[in-house]
Design a protein that fits this description.
With about 300 residues, the protein is of the alpha/beta class. About 35% of the residues lie in helices and about 20% in strands. The strands form 2 sheets. The chain has a 9-stranded mixed β-sheet with strand order 5-4-1-8-9-10-11-12-13, sandwiched between helices. Strands 3-2-6-7 form a 4-stranded mixed β-sheet. Helix 2 links the parallel strand 4 and strand 5. It is globular and about 50 Å long.
Length: about 300
């Protein structure tokens, strides 16, 4: 039995090794494992959770790299399918600290991770996992959307977490993304998103109103990330507001995935809501102070040390 199974995007992140420079002028790059659900599985594995990711890669050298990197981070790649034809996606970014990190997706018309079909799924493993993590992006195209529906139908216990991960360039319109989110929110126990993402999902941007709308849609825990204002969460019985942890930001892109892996740890351990948020905030801050995403995911001890006053 797995503690966590995630499903969705994977690929290769190609990051400039110079900050504050546009891609037109960058001369050297680093290659890293990428894709938000994949990074969440890595983040959770760093906390000792037995994690696996359901995704697809191309039959190419980058696909080989993704598989090797997933295994190297202690995540099970048994559910990673190699698909002939489309290339493994590559993502570039520009790094302008502290808060400007443009992302450029090179995913082709129909990337491997959106070609996962229901027949490729181990529904018994999905149903038995303590946590199942999926994202809005995985609903953007068939047959991936059908695979997500089959996976959600297999869930009968544990926590199902919906990452509202909205990438405008991967959708034909915000309205299409809203309709997809509306259909699956009743099937999730937890929803996690930033202000733009909750607005796409439920039509309101105010954190308190958005959290209530997410609860009304059927989730048990609504988590709204507010950037420099911290994070707000609500259940039917309580709410918590946690201020951000101050760090010198190097690259903020992987912080949300570190946050997600830490949320999974809190859910798995049965932590109180506020403790989970504080730990997740610190995990995100740890990664924001570093260049990479998956490579920078902290251990539980590293997060605790940061909470206790250590420098990131």
């Amino acid at each position: 039995m797995y503690d966590l199974i995630t499903i969705g995007r994977c690929g290769v992140d190609v990051y400039p090794l110079q900050t504050g420079v546009g891609l037109a002028d960058v001369e050297t790059f680093g290659k890293f494992l990428g894709g938000s659900p994949t990074n969440v599985a890595v983040a959770a594995a760093r906390h000792g959770l037995r994690s696996a990711v359901i995704t697809g890669v191309g039959a190419d050298p980058f696909g080989d790299y993704v598989r090797r990197a997933i295994r190297g981070f202690g995540v099970d790649d048994a559910f990673v399918t190699t698909i002939e034809g489309p290339a493994t996606p590559v993502t570039f970014c520009e790094i302008f600290p502290p808060d400007h990190f443009p992302i450029y997706f090179y995913r082709g018309e129909h990337p491997p991770d959106l070609r996962i079909t229901p027949a490729m799924l181990d529904l018994a493993a999905i149903g038995a996992a303590e946590l199942f993590w999926f994202s809005l992006t995985g609903l953007s195209r068939e047959p991936s959307a059908a695979a997500h529906a089959a996976a959600l139908a297999a869930r009968t216990s544990g926590w199902t977490v919906f990452d509202l991960d909205y990438r405008a360039t991967l959708w034909e319109s915000p309205e299409a993304a809203h309709e997809a989110a509306r259909r699956v929110l009743p099937l999730a126990d937890v929803a996690v998103g930033n202000l733009e993402e909750v607005e796409v999902a439920v039509g309101v941007r105010d954190p308190e109103a958005a959290a209530r709308a997410l609860l009304d849609a059927g989730v048990r825990i609504a988590i709204v990330k507010m950037g420099p204002e911290g994070v707000f969460a609500r259940t039917s019985e309580e709410s918590a507001l946690v201020e951000p942890m101050e760090v010198k930001v190097v690259n903020g892109i992987g912080a949300g995935d570190a946050f997600g892996g830490a949320v999974c740890l809190g859910l798995r351990r049965g932590w109180p809501l506020e403790r989970t948020l504080r730990f997740a905030n610190a995990a995100g801050a740890f990664v924001a102070a570093r260049l990479a995403c998956a490579d920078a995911m902290p251990t539980t001890d590293e997060v605790e040390s940061l909470l206790n006053g250590a420098r990131p």
